[in-house]
Amino acid sequence: MDIISLASLGLAYVIDMLIGDPPNRWHPVAAMGSVIRWAAAHAPASRCKRRFVYGIFLTLFGAAIFALPVVWLASLRFPIPWIAVL
After folding, report:
1. Which residues of 1-86 form beta strands (DSSP E)?
2. Between the CA atoms of 72, 75, 81 and 82, what dihedral angle is there, to the nearest 10 degrees?
3. From the CB of residue 22, how many other CB atoms can be counted at a distance below 10 Å?
4. Fewest CB within 10 A of the end CB: N or C in the chain?
């Protein structure tokens, strides 16, 4: 690990200790939890196969709705070829 990486890690740690996490209503993990909680409440109550397919859809959809905005913002800031692969 070079000195820049080590300094960045140390600075990130100090900022995290001083400021901490954002309030839960603005935290992306809290938003994901709300979406999962809502989807679980609306899960089909019938057969195991239907619930399994619902879980797969929830996993893929949940990952997409929270990852795609980040990829989109990264492509605006850093237009690099690997984003075209996604």
Report:
1. none
2. -50
3. 10
4. N
